Amino acid sequence: MKTPLFLIGVLLALDVSADSVKLEVYTPNDAGGYIVLTHESCQLEKFKKTYPYRGYATTSDVDVVHEGCYDVPSIESAPQLPGYKVFSMVNFIDADGLRVEWPLHIFSSTKETDVEEPTL
Length: 120
Fold this sequence. Notes:
This protein has one domain. The protein is mostly beta strands. It has one helix at about 1-15; strands at about 25-30, 35-40, 55-60, 65-70, 90-95, 100-105. A 6-stranded antiparallel β-sheet has the order 1-2-3-4-5-6, with no helix packed on it. Strand 5 and strand 6 (about 100-105) form a beta hairpin. It has 1 helix and 6 strands; from the N terminus they run αββββββ.
């Protein structure tokens, strides 16, 4: 809870409006674009309740955006099992209902070029 309060304090100190801050994280995809996760509300009404945030994918083609929605469930109550590491996952669903999961740690706040996708 300290991080959101700190961020709000910094934004107030800098006199930055919430509308001017664009919070997005990226990971490269196989189509020459990015998977992008935002803090905006999901734009796909039928998935909004389960996947509250907007995500989308881009390609190397200009102006091609594939809409989707996502959620990152809490891992606080995940059981700690010997020999296993618990990490946050992104649960993503596209407009056609295709569900995909990615580890959260592969996303970055900057778009990287000429970088191979991380392997697990």
